[in-house]
């Protein structure tokens, strides 16, 4: 007699987004728009299973929602912790062989772990966002110089681009759309 074992598949939690205010000082608005984009990525992943998050439904790209979570985990880590705060930490996904190593080896079995790594990273990075916007930040890796304002704007740009990708991927997975 064979035993039937039911395996529960992990599902990404539902996320509500907070829209940026219509007015405020520059630092408040930049931080609010960055937070909105972080929440938008999580919103695009809401209620999907690990299998769905790992899907690559657009045949012309290796991108998946899970790959985007992994990519933006290292983007946050790179710009706010390594460059912005001078921490000596390794990337979680970058640096493996291949140009898009954060998009490679994406599996449903790792979805919950990778999702949580992203959430943990943005929690750590939020605590580093109170710098003076005009502060000059020197990249410890190559000596490049940036204002903290530039770093926040770059993160917003990075998210805006990838949230567009996430929108297309989500629509291809289950037809869900939204701004």
Summarize the structure.
The chain has one domain (49-174): Up-down Bundle (Four Helix Bundle (Hemerythrin (Met), subunit A)), CATH 1.20.120.450. 49% of the residues lie in helices and 3% in strands. The protein contains 5 helices and 2 strands; from the N terminus they run ααααββα.
Strand and helix layout:
Elements: H1 26-45, H2 50-54, H3 65-83, H4 111-126, E1 136-138, E2 145-147, H5 148-174
Antiparallel strand pairs: 1-2
Helix pairs in contact: 1-3, 1-5, 3-4, 3-5
Main attributes of the structure:
Four Helix Bundle (Hemerythrin (Met), subunit A), globular, 2 strands, mainly alpha, single chain, 179 residues, two-stranded antiparallel sheet, 5 helices
Helicity range of the residues? 40-55%
How would a crystallographer describe the biggest sheet? 2 strands, antiparallel
Number of helices, where a helix is a run of at least 4 consecutive DSSP H or I residues: 5
Strand order of the largest sheet: 1-2
**Principal-axis shape:** globular
**What's the end-to-end separation, in Å?**
51 Å
CATH topology: Four Helix Bundle (Hemerythrin (Met), subunit A)
Uncertain segments of ≥5 residues (pLDDT<50)? none
**CA gyration radius, whole angstroms:** 18 Å
In the CATH hierarchy, what is the architecture at level 2? Up-down Bundle
How many β-strand stretches?
A: 2
- Count of the domains: 1
Give the integer mean of the pLDDT values: 92
Structural class: mainly alpha
How do the helices and strands follow one another from N- to C-terminus?
A: HHHHEEH
Indicate the proportion of strand residues: under 5%
Report the CATH C-level class: Mainly Alpha
CATH superfamily, please? dinb family like domain
């Amino acid at each position: 007699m064979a035993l039937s074992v039911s395996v529960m598949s992990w599902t990404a939690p539902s996320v509500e987004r907070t829209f940026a205010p219509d007015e405020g000082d520059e630092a408040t608005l930049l931080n609010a728009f960055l937070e909105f984009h972080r929440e938008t990525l999580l919103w695009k992943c809401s209620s999907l299973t690990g299998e769905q998050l790992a899907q690559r439904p657009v045949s012309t790209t290796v991108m998946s929602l899970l790959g985007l979570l992994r990519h933006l985990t290292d983007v946050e880590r790179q710009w706010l912790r390594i460059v912005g705060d001078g921490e000596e930490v390794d990337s979680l996904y970058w640096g493996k062989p291949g140009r898009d190593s954060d998009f490679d080896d994406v599996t449903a079995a790792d979805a919950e772990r990778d999702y949580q790594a992203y959430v943990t990273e943005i929690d750590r990075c939020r605590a580093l966002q109170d710098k003076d916007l005009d502060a000059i930040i020197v990249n410890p890796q190559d000596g490049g110089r940036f204002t903290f304002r530039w770093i926040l704007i770059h993160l917003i740009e990075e998210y805006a681009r990838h949230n567009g990708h996430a929108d297309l991927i989500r629509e291809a997975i289950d037809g869900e759309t939204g701004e």
